[in-house]
Amino acid sequence: MTRTNLRRRAGSAALGLLADRILGEPPAELHPVARFGEAMQAIEANRYADTRSAGVAYSLAGLAIGMTGGALLRSPALAVTLTASGRELRIAAARVQEALFDADLDRARELMPALVGRDPTELDRSGLAAAVIESLGENTVDAVVAPALWAVACGAPGTVAYRAANTMDAMVGNRSSRYGKFGWASARLDDVANFVPARVTALLVAAVRPRAASEVWRAVREQAPAHPSPNSGVAEAAFAAALGVEVGGKTRYGDRVEDRPLLGFGPRPQADDIQRAITLASQVELALVAALGLLALSSRRRK
C-alpha cells in the first residue's frame, strides 16, 4: 500500500465514522446488512449440512458477496458509513437505561435483544446493566473499530467483507446443536477478523481513561484470556476496568448456561453506569477518528 492510499483510506474511514455518528443507520428495509442476511439465509436453506465443510462453503460464499459489494461501492468512506453502527449501539443502550430508570424491568428485558443474544428473562437490574456494558464493549469492536481498520487495510472490499464475516458469525457462529459444525468456519473467521481491532479498542479505552490505564491492562492481561471469545473478553474487560465495575458471570443462551469469567474490578454495575459506558464508547470512537485523521495528515506530510 502506498502512503497516498494509506492517507486516503485513513481519512475516508474517519469520515465514514463521522457520517454514521451524524446520520445513523439506513432504514431496516434499505439496510444492506439486512439484505445480506436474507441472502445468507437463502444459501443456508439450500446448502445446510451438519458438517464443517458445508460451513466453510457457506462462509466463502458470504465473503465473496461482501467483497463484491465493497468493490461495487468503491468508496471506503461510504463502506464504513453503511457498515458501522456506533450511533445505533449507543442509542439502544440508552433505551435500556431509560427503562431501568423508570423501574420497568419488563421493558428493559424486551429491549435487550437489540444488544445481546443471551436470554434476559432472569436478569435483575444489575444484571441488565452488566449485559449492556458488556455489549457496548464487544460491539464497539464490531460496529466501530473493526470496520474502520479494515477500511484502512483493504479499502471498501475489506470493510464490507468484514461486515459479512461478522454478520455470518451472528447468524450461525453459536454453539447450538444445529450450528456447532456448520457455524465453525464463520466463528473462526470472525475471531481472526476481530483479533487486532479488539486490542486496538483496549488501547483506545486506556488512552481515553489514562487514570485507569493500569487497571485496563491488568484486566486485559489477567482476566480476558479466561473468556471463551479471544476478542470479546478483551473489549469487555477493558470497558469494565475503565469504569471500575465488575461484569461477567452466569450467562444463559436459551437452554445453555455459560459461567463466564468475572471481568473488571469493583462493584456490580447499576443503571447509572450505563451512561458512563455510553460516554466511554463515544469517546473511544472519537479517539479513533482523531487517530485516523492524524494518520491521514502525517502521511500527507511525508509524501
Describe the model.
Helix 3 packs across helix 7 (about 125-170) and helix 7 crosses helix 11 (about 270-300). Strand 1 and strand 2 (about 255-265) form a beta hairpin. The model has no long low-confidence stretch (mean pLDDT about 95). The chain has eleven helices and two strands, in the order H-H-H-H-H-H-H-H-H-H-E-E-H. Strands 1-2 form a two-stranded antiparallel ribbon. The protein has helices at about 5-25, 30-45, 50-75, 75-85, 85-100, 105-110, 125-170, 185-210, 215-220, 230-245, 270-300, and strands at about 245-255, 255-265. The chain is globular, with a radius of gyration of 19 Å. The chain has about 300 residues and is mostly helical. The longest helix is centred in the middle third of the chain and has 48 residues, at about 125-170.
Count all strands and give the number.
2
Question: What share of the residues does DSSP label as strand, in percent?
Answer: 5-15%
Order of helices and strands: HHHHHHHHHHEEH
Summed over residues and divided by their number, the pLDDT gives a mean of: 93
Q: Reading side by side through the largest sheet, how are the strands ordered?
A: 1-2
**First and last CA, distance:** 13 Å
Tag the structure with descriptive keywords.
mainly alpha, two-stranded antiparallel sheet, 2 strands
Task: Please outline the helices and strands.
Blueprint lengths: L2 H21 L8 H16 L4 H22 L2 H8 L2 H16 L3 H7 L13 H48 L11 H25 L4 H10 L9 H12 L2 E8 L2 E9 L6 H32 L1
Helix pairs in contact: 1-4, 1-7, 1-11, 2-3, 2-7, 3-7, 3-8, 4-7, 5-6, 5-7, 5-11, 7-8, 7-10, 7-11, 8-9, 8-10, 8-11, 9-10
